[in-house]
């Protein structure tokens, strides 16, 4: 565990944890795990797929993104480019210069995809869990979500937290309280929706193999055919009976697919089709 300052005028102190297989060498793959927004932190990976990836021989880097977990919480500077810049500088500070595998859950996947657009030579593969590229539709959705959060968890914080505690337990209420503080004390709710977004031409520019995992009952699953049409080196896993929280609800399944993608990015040894994967998951 360490605090790493990313340096530069926009740099912040990031809480980083690294899990390794013990001995590493030139052939050891590195996976950087990026968590989601507001209520999330590196703990989402620490208690799900992080240890399993390390046990399988992967050099695992996890960190709390700016404003989250134990990382620094500046008052300003939460546009998507700032999160991508943190990833750029963190890898440099850690001395990781070769291509890495990026695993992103929700907003973390959006950061990972943006990084792949900017640095295609530094990405060996992408695993996007319930995530999507930053498009105008994404920005509109985040504006609505963050606006609602600002209202419910800031203007009516006590009532909202009491309801969450009663219906989802104390742990979730504590996470929501942290999210409310982040929204209340920073410009994150204004910054993220005003981030620069991608058109289809720039999305098509990504040549890294992309694995996309969705819960079948999540609204994000509907974008799978669109994303596959833009990215020839992409595959989709649709998990029946689940919504947005597939990482925490079925971590063993997610680990299996992410490990398979890291070991065979792009499915060169015969990744099955989206439909076939859905059938496999339904039977498992």
TrEMBL record:
A Pfam family assignment: Abhydrolase_1
Signal peptide bounds: none
InterPro entries named among the record's database cross-references: AB_hydrolase_1 (IPR000073), AB_hydrolase_fold (IPR029058), Carboxylesterase_BioH (IPR050228)
Organism domain of life: Bacteria
UniProt GO MF annotations: hydrolase activity
AB hydrolase-1 domain residues: 32-153
Swiss-Prot/TrEMBL keywords: Hydrolase
The protein, known as: Alpha/beta hydrolase fold protein
Organism: Streptomyces bingchenggensis (strain BCW-1)
């Amino acid at each position: 565990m360490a605090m790493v300052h990313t340096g530069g005028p926009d740099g912040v102190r990031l809480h980083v944890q690294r899990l390794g297989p013990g001995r590493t060498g030139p052939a050891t793959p590195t996976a950087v795990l990026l968590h989601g927004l507001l209520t999330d932190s590196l703990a989402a990976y620490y208690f799900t797929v992080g240890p399993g990836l390390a046990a399988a021989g992967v050099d695992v880097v996890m960190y709390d993104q700016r404003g989250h977990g134990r990382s620094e919480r500046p008052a300003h500077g939460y546009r998507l480019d700032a999160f991508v810049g943190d990833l750029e500088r963190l890898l440099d500070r850690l001395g990781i210069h070769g291509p890495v595998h990026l695993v992103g859950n929700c907003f973390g996947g959006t950061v990972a995809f943006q990084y792949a657009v900017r640095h295609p030579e530094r990405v060996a593969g992408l695993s996007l869990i319930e995530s999507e590229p930053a498009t105008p539709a994404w920005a509109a959705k985040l504006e609505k979500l963050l606006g609602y959060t600002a209202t419910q968890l800031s203007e009516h914080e006590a009532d909202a937290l009491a309801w969450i505690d009663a219906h989802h337990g104390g742990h979730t209420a504590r996470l929501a309280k942290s999210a409310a503080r982040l929204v209340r004390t920073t410009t994150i709710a204004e910054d993220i929706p005003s981030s620069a977004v991608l058109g289809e031409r720039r999305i098509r520019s990504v040549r890294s193999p992309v694995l996309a995992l969705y819960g079948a009952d999540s609204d994000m699953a509907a974008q799978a055919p669109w994303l596959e049409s833009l990215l020839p080196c992409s595959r989709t896993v649709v998990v029946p009976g689940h919504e947005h929280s597939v990482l925490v609800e079925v971590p063993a399944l997610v680990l299996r697919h992410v490990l398979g993608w890291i070991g065979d990015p792009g499915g060169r040894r015969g990744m099955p089709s989206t439909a076939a994967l859905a059938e496999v998951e339904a039977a498992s």
